[in-house]
Amino acid sequence: MDQLIEQIVTGLSIGSILLLVALGLSIIYGSMGIINLAHGEFVMLGAYAAWVFHTYLGLGLLASLVPIFLVVAAFGWVIERYVLSLLNNRPLDTILATWGVGIMLQQAVRLMVGSELRYVQLPPALSDSMDVFGIPISSYRVFLFVVSIALFGATWLLMNRTPVGMKLRAIIQDRSVAASFGINAKRVYALTFAYGAGLAGLAGALVSPLKSVSPDMGTGYVVDAFMVVVLGGVQSLAGTVASAFILGELSGGIAFLQNDTVAKTIVLLAIVVLIRFRPEGLFTARVRA
Amino acid sequence: MPSNISNSSGLQRLIAQLAPLLIVSALVFALPVLLNNDFLLNKVARYLVLGILTISLGLSWGFGGILNLGQAMSFGLGSYAMAMALKLKTVPVHTGASGLPDFMVWNNVQHLPWFWEPFRSLSFAIAAGLLVPALVAAGLGWFMFRGRVTGVYVSIITLATMVVINLVIIDQQSYTGGFNGITDLAQLELFGVAFDAYGRATYYLVAGCVLLSLLVAFAFTKSRAGLIVQAIRDHESRVRYFGYDVALYQIFVFALSAAIAGLAGMLYTVVMEFASPTFLGVQLSLSVVVWCAVGGRQSLVGAFLGAVLVAGMQGALSESAAFLETWTLVMGALFVLVVLFLPKGLAGLAQATWRWVAQRRQAASGAVARGVSQTEGST
After folding, report:
1. For a surface tag, which of B68, B157, B161, B358 has the fewest beta carbons within 10 Å of its beta carbon?
2. Any chain A CB within 8 A of the CB of B326?
3. What are the CA-CA distances from residue A11 to residues A73, A141, A167, A250 (Å)?
4. Minimal Cα–Cα distance from B255 to chain A, Å?
5. Is A232:A152 a contact under the CB 8 Å cutoff?
């Protein structure tokens, strides 16, 4: 019984990390149709930003979250403005371009700070463990869970309750009509991409105390995050949450029964089959075109 | 008579289209005469093999509109097929006549697994190197294209499938050599010729396969099926309304592309003298896309040259200390610039330049003619 609960909690914590990484990806893909292969590198930039803020400015992880968001969002803004906005109506080429940007970011970091592993400290306030149903669970993992849900809530509000979100949804519906109502699509797209990048940066900062920070740490995340987005349905934020936790529990559960390779293989194959039969994702209702 | 004229101009056009292909092949064959260094020749052969792999991607991506992000899967399968056959040849030397490949002995395998057994025959291995990738691709293609999966989703499915196979190969160490791959291979021997990785024979084998794959791919793009495939790329639904079985043509080009990639994989094992899980890794798969895009995805010769040039430069620069670190940065930048400003790659640039020159010449000769007629008029 204890083991089962422990397993569920592990799954929840894998799920909250997946959600953090996938949230930005989901917005970017869902609203702009861009497969952002540089997303993993935004995660990596966030993790390095956390390390830099801590080592050179003595800023704790929690205090540096907002600046990290802004720094990585700025990167995203520049990339959207000077690369992706030139690729209108060429969705497959955005895969290529973002991949090119990704390897540039990776190599730039490698050149500037070297490729040795870096470590970020757990925030002291969250370094002990809590008692949940009699099982000790690290407070930081609980914190991650809370933060990922909170960020999801903030994103949902941003998309559904603010002028920018409204404009973005108008552009998704019909770009030319939106433009004729005076909505500046270019600006909204740049902001959207920047926001998605910022979220990825936050994700990177938040996982940095759990894993070592290295220039190629992003590559692993991007594939997993994609699976979350595809499973959840492209334009459904709620679907992203559900699928992040389903995949988290699934890989936690299968890994518990078998080994990591089997878990990954089963999850990947399930996704291949899912795309074939429900390309719109598990959690989206079929809509009339 | 008029039909005769159009025939001869058709022939002329065919020759004009074949010209870049034949020139490049001639250069490839002539290289050993200029390059009197076996080590260098082996390196060039390696790049040529990657060129064949890139031709195969150009066929499915440039002509079929199917961006296969798992192209290295077919390459890796071909490579392992060849490596298994060559590994079995080393058994009597290493572990006695009735022995097992050395890595199986280290992993306490008692009997040769059933799927290794047929690879005692080299011709079976070569057939498998072509057919296994083609059949896997046909199956995957059937699964995707019958369900009308398109665009980005095709890329995700192909990528995921390759990652799964890669994971399985690494996991099943006792049967596949796991992370280390299959190493310490015998030399390939065909028709009494031994193909030493550093020998001329191997180089010419690779060069012959370059010519062969260029010709096969060229013939396909000019065939009826090839034209329909290109029509599907441009207007899928229109072709469907005309009553063509769109999925069938997509499956065919996907499988043909996989078979060529399998051929490249087999050659790679011969040239590198091992097979490794990185041969069907994400890194290589994405690199092939880069080469293809840089060279020109809608040009077979362009795709081939793109691979040879970029992979060659990468090899050369990563060996020089000055560029060891910055090279990847340069490659990323180059790639982004090509995607942004040269969607048809270097081949597109060459074609545009050629057309510009031809126009200039035409304009000049036109001006001369006009000048002549003017002077005639004035006299």
Report:
1. B358
2. yes
3. 29, 11, 36, 7
4. 19
5. no
Tokens of A182: 């005076």
Residues A207 and A122: their CA atoms lie apart, in Å, by 10
Distance from CA of B290 to the nearest CA of A (A): 8
CB A275 within 8 A of CB B156: yes
Question: Do B304 and B291 form a contact (C-beta atoms < 8 A)?
Answer: no
Distances (CA, A) of B54 to B130, B209, B266: 16, 13, 15
Let me know: does B170 contact A261? Beta carbons within 8 Å: yes
Nearest to A107 among B155, B289, B332 (CB): B332
Closest by alpha carbon to A41, among A63, A25, A19?
A25
Answer left, alpha or beta for residue A150, where phi above 0 means left and psi between -120 and 50 means alpha.
alpha
At A21-78, the pLDDT tens digits run 899 888 888 888 888 889 999 999 999 999 998 888 878 888 888 999 999 999 999 9
CB atoms within 10 A of CB A35: 23
Residue pLDDT, tens place only, B240-290: 888 888 889 999 999 999 999 999 999 999 999 888 888 988 888 888 988
- A35·B336 Cβ contact <8 A: no
Which residues are CB-contacts of B240 (< 8 A; sequence separation ≥ 6)? B246
Find the angle CA(A59)-CA(A62)-CA(A66) to the nearest 5 degrees: 90
- Asked if this assembly's ipTM is beyond 0.90, the reply is no
* Weakest-pLDDT range from A7-11, A18-22, A150-154, B5-9: B5-9
Question: Is A75 within 8 Å of A39 (Cβ atoms)?
Answer: no
Count of alpha carbons within 13 angstroms of residue A139, beta-carbon side: 9
Going by C-alpha positions, the residue among A229, A235, A246 that lies closest to residue A22 is A229
Per CB-CB distance under 8 Å, the chain B contacts of A103 are: 328-329, 331-332, 335
Angstrom CA distances, A173 to A81, A83, A88, A261, B217, stand at 22, 24, 16, 41, 42
- CB A236 within 8 Å of CB A284: yes
CA distance B72 to B50: 10
- Give the angle subtended at the CA of A37 by the CAs of B160 and A54, to the nearest 5°: 120
Q: Distance between CA B130 and CA B261 in Å, rounded?
A: 8
